[in-house]
Design a protein that fits this description.
Layout (H helix, E strand, L loop, with lengths): L2 H12 L3 H9 L3 H10 L4 H7 L3 H9 L3 H10 L4 H10 L2 H9 L3 H8 L4 H11 L6 H4 L6 E2 L5 H11 L8 E5 L5 E6 H6 L17 E2 L4 H10 L4 E5 L5 E6 H19 L14 H28 L1 H6 L3 H29 L7 H30 L4 H28 L9 H25 L1
Parallel strand pairs: 1-2, 4-5
Antiparallel strand pairs: 2-3, 5-6
Helix pairs in contact: 3-4, 3-5, 5-7, 8-10, 14-15, 16-21, 18-20, 18-21, 19-20, 20-21
Amino acid sequence: MGETIVTLFEELINQKNWRALRAAIEDIDPITSAGIIEELSDEDDIIYFRLLPREHAKDTFQHLSHDKQEQIIEGLASNANRVAGLLNDLNPDDRTAFFEELPGNITQRLLQLLSPEERAISVRLLGYPENSIGRLMTPEFVAVKPDYTVQQAIDHMRQFGRDSETLNVIYVVDDNWKLIDDIRMREIILADPNQPIQDLMAGYFVALNAFDDQEVAIRVFQEQDRTALPVTDSNGILIGIVTVDDVMDVAEEESTEDFQKFGSVQATVVSPLKARVMDLYQKRIVWLLALVFVNVFSGAALAKYQDVITSAVALIFFLPLLIDSSGNAGSQSATLMIRSLAIGDVETKDWVKLLGKEFIVSLLLGVTMALGVSLVAAFRAPEYIFVIAATMVFTVMAGSLIGMLLPFIFTKLKLDPATASAPLITSIADITGVIIYFSIASWYIGM
C-alpha cells in the first residue's frame, strides 16, 4: 500500500474531516481498504472501519488478517449492534474461519450476537472436526429438482440465488435432498426453457465429504476443473459447497505450515514481523531442545571410537563432509516423499516399491559421490581412501533411506509427515554416519 494514500487518510482523521474521509472511502474497493486498515494505527483503523458502508465493511473485513479482525471486533465492542450486523453479514465459511481462531469464551459471546438462523449455521459448522471440509464449506447454494424445467430453475435461482456463494454450478437433488448431479450454469442458459433439468443431467459428479480433511479438497480441486464442489454427509445428502478461493487459502496455509515444520518450527508463524518475541521463541525452542538431546547420541558415538580417532587423526578432516552428504541426501529424499504424500501422488501402501527404487538411486548417488571424495582423499589421506569412499556410499544410502521412510512412518502414526523435518533427518543421519564411518575405520585399521 502506497505511503501517500495512507498518509492522506491519517491527515483527514487528524483533522476530523469526516465528510471528506467518508467521500474518499466510498471510491475505494474492499481489498484496497483492507490494505489501508492494516497500515493505519490501532486507533485510526477503527475510525476508518466505522465509516465504511455496511456492505463495504463486510467485504473489507473478510480481507483483513486475523489479528486485525480481532482488533476491529474489540474496537467495536461498545457498539453491539454494529458487531452483530457485521457478523451476520459475513459469509458462513468466512465467519467460521474467524471464530475458529478465537478463544472459546469469546466465540460463545459473539455467537450470541448472531440472528437465530445464522447462529444455527455457525454452531453446525463449528461442530465439524478441526481442519475438516465441514468447517470450510458454506451452506449458501442453489439446488433444484430434476423435474424442474430450465425456466423454473432460472426463476428459482433469481428468487433464492442472491445470497449464494456462487452461481457457476447448480445442484440437482431428490425429494430427500440427496445429491444426484450438478450442472454448470452455461448448460442451463443455453438450453431450451421448456426442457426438463433431468435431460441435462450427465449422471456424473464429484462431491466432497464433510468429515474429510481439507487436504482432500485441495487434491480434488487440483484434479477437477471446477470453481466449486458440493459437500455431502455420509448419506449423500447435500449440505454445502466449497469454492476454489476458500481452498486456495487453505492450500497456502498448509504449504506455509509444512514448510515451517520442515524447519522444525513447532507451530505456524503467520508473520515473523507481527509475531511477538515470546511467541516466536515458544514455537522454535521445543524442537531445538529435542534435537539437542538427539545429537547427544552423536557425541556418545564419537566417544566410543576415541581410540580409532587417536590412531587416525586424518579421518576427522572428512567427518563433516561425509555426515553432511548423508543429511543432504536424506533431506532431498524426505522432501520428495512429503510432497508426494501431500498431493496424493503416493500412498502409504507404496512404501515397499519406493524403498526398492530409493535403494538403487541412493546406491548410484553414493558411488558417484564416493568417486568425488576419493580424489580429495588421494591428496589428504591416501592411506584411508577405501574407508572414506566406502563410508560415503553407505552414509548416502542410509540418509536417503531414512529420509524416504520417516514420512511414511509419521503418516502411519497419523502424524503430519512434514514433522519428519530436515533437522530431525540430519540429526539421525549424523548418528548413523558417525557409527558407519568409525566402524569401517576400526575394521580397516584392525586389519
